[in-house]
Design a protein that fits this description.
This protein is mostly beta strands and 68 residues long. It has one domain: N-terminal domain of TfIIb (Single Sheet). The chain has one helix at residues 3-8, and strands spanning 27-29, 34-37, 42-47, 50-51, 59-60. Strands 1, 2, 3, 4 and 5 form a five-stranded antiparallel beta sheet that branches. The chain is globular and about 30 Å long.
Length: 68
């Protein structure tokens, strides 16, 4: 993760993107550079400013991923 990754992700994309599994809204986790689907229990990575919305690339959420 670099600050370049953060700078290139356009948060306005969140308005257009939904979880590919559940079709529900996503949350942006800036620290981990991920888009989180709580409904699916998955976190989709953002690489070079591009969200990777493939379920096979997503990280399963764990107990440490509980909302603040």
């Amino acid at each position: 993760m670099t600050s370049d990754d953060e700078a290139t992700f356009d948060r306005r994309m969140l308005e257009a993107l939904v979880c590919p599994v559940t079709q529900t809204r996503l949350e942006y986790d800036a620290a981990r550079q991920e888009l989180v689907s709580r409904a699916a229990g998955l976190a989709f990575p953002i690489r070079n400013g591009i969200p990777i919305m493939l379920p096979s690339e997503a990280r399963p959420l764990g107990d440490d991923d509980a909302p603040a």
